[in-house]
Amino acid sequence: MSLGGGSAGGTEAALDLYGRPSLSRRVGSLLGWGACLLAVCLIGAPLVWVIYGVVARAAPHWHWSVITETTSSTGGGGLANEIVGTLLLMAGVIVVAGTIGILSGVYLAEYAKGHVGSLLRAGSEVLAGIPSIVLGYVGYIALVIGLRWQFSLAAALIALSLLTVPYIAKSTEAALRQVPTAYREGADALGMSELLTLRRITLKTALPGVTTGLLVAIAISLGETAPLLYTAGFTDNMPSLSLTHSPVGYLTYAVWTFYNQPSTSFQNLSYDAALILVVLVFVLIVASRLIVALTQKHTEKN
Fold first, then answer.
1. Residues 70 and 183 occupy one common structural domain
2. Sign of CA dihedral 116, 171, 213, 220
């Protein structure tokens, strides 16, 4: 009786005479929605401010020759060599860091058990916490000087891969662990091998999370400057396909260096480089969402 009476009393206190939520509950709901809206505004305001600042500075003097001409050491020119170098570094990160990170995440989620798994996860978290400039300096000492590769594409890719692999591995492991156990049990009941289950069921279901992690890694490599200063160097020429002894130009160098130059043409190039970086990030986000949408649509049909 006491339990029933308490429940009825609580229900009556939560509703008014017209069966609507009480004033205190409505006020609490409005405060909760207001706090959520404020949090979204606090997150979105800096983004809008940055994008507006970049576009406002780059748009007045924008000309399409920026993406077709190479940088001139005397001032002016374009950013073609930096754009190609950035795209080349992004492609390398997808191949190198993407392969190692996804395989590492699969191993951590499916096979690493007990103390071995804990040790590997701890090592991955430590690697993710190392400042990027430290990784760049280590790459400079070990690769540029130690192996005598000089400033090169290979040294830059290794430094960026060390920086981004932990993020890909972590997101891949998290995505695989969110796959329902019933999927694996159903595949086992059908007699599917462990490898076939992983390839046809588990990875396909976890693909949106894996894609998101890979996107984060590409975005990180797209916006890094410190490790590339130590490993990629810089050149005004178009990048070659040589892995060693070949400096590479990249957009973040133009943003960081050209802005401090006294020449107005160099400063304008820094604004243009920042705008191109923003557009590349936007394209990556749209491409990722399309991949996720197509994957989920395909999964629902199957």
1. yes
2. negative
pLDDT digits (tens, 9 = 90+) for 55-103: 999 988 888 889 988 888 776 788 999 999 999 999 999 999 999 999 9
Least confident of 30-39, 213-222, 290-299: 290-299
Q: Which pLDDT score is estimated for 135? A: 92
**Same-domain pairing of 128 and 211:** yes
Residues 147 and 228 in one domain: yes
Domain shared by 110 and 243, yes or no: yes
Q: What is the pLDDT of residues 189-246, one digit of tens each?
A: 888 888 888 888 888 888 888 888 888 788 888 888 889 999 999 988 898 888 899 9
Domain containing residue 37: 2-58
The four Cα atoms 268, 274, 279, 283 give a dihedral, to 10 degrees, of 150
Average pLDDT over residues 174-199: 83
Nearest Cα to Cα of residue 89 among 277, 294, 265: 277
> Average pLDDT of 136-163?
93
